[in-house]
């Protein structure tokens, strides 16, 4: 007979989210679309097939008409995102972590900077990503309470 106090519940197939990050020096609409075509799209198709929603910020390369057409032509749903919304964009917190680690590393050359960026990015744990994603309901509530003004996030 089962004894409830002796049982531990668990989720056999927990939900998960894949986060894909990219950094580059100068990106225009054409080079951004090349990155999407040759790197993001093959990765996303391998991981999710055609069942994914893409998110990016409103950087000029991201919001260009030609980029919008690229997504439409490839049948990719893009999550609409308000301008200047770091409160609602958890990856901004990851970039902040990278920037803080870069300040501590104090790179002096371009090669040192690149190495420090790679090391900083690699040091971000899955748990940190999960905590940021799990904070979304609180972030949304905070933005609503603040009537769209900045929050602690």
Structure description:
- This is Tc1-like transposase DDE domain-containing protein.
- InterPro entries: RNaseH_sf, Tc1-like_DDE_dom.
- There is one protein chain.
- With 153 residues, this protein is mainly alpha-helical.
- The chain has two domains: 17-81, Ribonuclease H-like superfamily/Ribonuclease H (Nucleotidyltransferase, domain 5, 2-Layer Sandwich), CATH 3.30.420.10; 84-153, no CATH class.
- The chain is 52% helix and 3% strand.
- It has seven helices and two strands.
- It has a two-stranded parallel ribbon with strand order 1-2.
- The longest helix has 20 residues, at 29-48.
- It is globular.
- The model has no long low-confidence stretch (mean pLDDT 81).
Quick summary:
InterPro entries: RNaseH_sf (IPR036397), Tc1-like_DDE_dom (IPR038717). The chain is an all-alpha fold and 153 residues long. It contains seven helices and two strands.
Morphology: globular
Helix content: 40-55%
Q: How many H/I helices?
A: 7
The largest sheet has its strands arranged as 1-2
Kindly give the count of domains. Answer: 2
Strand content: under 5%
Low-confidence stretches: none
The largest pleated sheet is described as: 2 strands, parallel
Which structural category fits the helices and strands?
mainly alpha
Order of helices and strands: HEHHEHHHH
Average the pLDDT over all residues and give the rounded result. Answer: 81
Spatial gap, N to C terminus = 48 Å
**Radius of gyration, taken over Cα atoms and rounded to an integer in Å:** 19 Å
How many strand segments? Answer: 2
């Amino acid at each position: 007979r089962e004894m409830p106090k002796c049982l531990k519940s668990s989720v056999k197939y927990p939900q998960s989210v894949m986060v894909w990050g990219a950094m580059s020096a100068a990106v225009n609409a054409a080079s951004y679309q090349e990155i999407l075509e040759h790197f993001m799209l093959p990765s996303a198709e391998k991981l999710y097939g055609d069942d994914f929603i893409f998110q990016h910020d409103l950087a000029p390369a991201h919001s260009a008409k030609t980029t919008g057409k690229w997504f439409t032509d490839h049948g990719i749903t893009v999550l609409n995102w308000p301008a200047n919304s770091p409160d609602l964009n958890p990856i901004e917190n990851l970039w902040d972590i990278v920037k803080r680690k870069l300040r501590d590393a104090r790179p002096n050359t371009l090669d040192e900077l690149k190495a420090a960026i790679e090391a900083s990015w690699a040091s971000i744990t899955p748990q940190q990503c999960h905590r940021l994603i799990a904070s979304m309901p609180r972030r949304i509530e905070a933005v609503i309470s603040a009537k769209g003004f900045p929050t602690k996030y």
